[in-house]
Amino acid sequence: MPIQFFRDSAHFHIDANTAVTVDEWGKQRDTNTLSSGYRDLIGICLRIALVDAMYQEEEPPLIMDDPFTNLDDKKVHAGMEFIEKLAQKYQIIYFTCSASRG
Questions:
Q1: Whole-number Å distance between alpha carbons of 86 and 102
Q2: Taking a C-beta distance cutoff of 8 angstroms, is the pair 59, 89 a contact?
Q3: CATH classification at residue 39
Q4: What is the pLDDT of residues 8-32, one digit of tens each?
Q5: Cα–Cα dist 69/82, whole Å
Q6: How do the residues of the chain divide into helix, strand and coil, expressed in percent and rounded to 5?
Q7: pLDDT tens across 83-102, in order?
Q8: Is the full-model pTM beyond 0.85?
Q9: Domain interval for residue 34
Q10: Which of 78, 73, 16, 85 is nearest to 48 (CA)?
Q11: Residue 100: inside a domain, yes or no?
Q12: Count of domains observed in the chain
């Protein structure tokens, strides 16, 4: 089962320059209208997609420095589930200054 960070009604589009727009309830808008936590999640997902595309034959280690600082506790929990799934494929080096987020 995939981990869901966003509402079912949200669909994301990425152009050739990796600019992301969100289509929600039939209206397209820029990601600048999203919270900083959601923008951080989109950035993480983009980076993971880039690593997957660049390293199809390899599995480089991923270094994450407090990637969930702008998320509420519910989203942090989903983010940690995402990290656990990534750790099945990649070696993850995860830094955080918060005991509750690591």
A1: 15
A2: yes
A3: 3.40.50.300
A4: 667 788 888 878 888 877 788 888 8
A5: 15
A6: 40, 20, 40
A7: 998 999 999 999 988 776 55
A8: no
A9: 11-95
A10: 85
A11: no
A12: 1
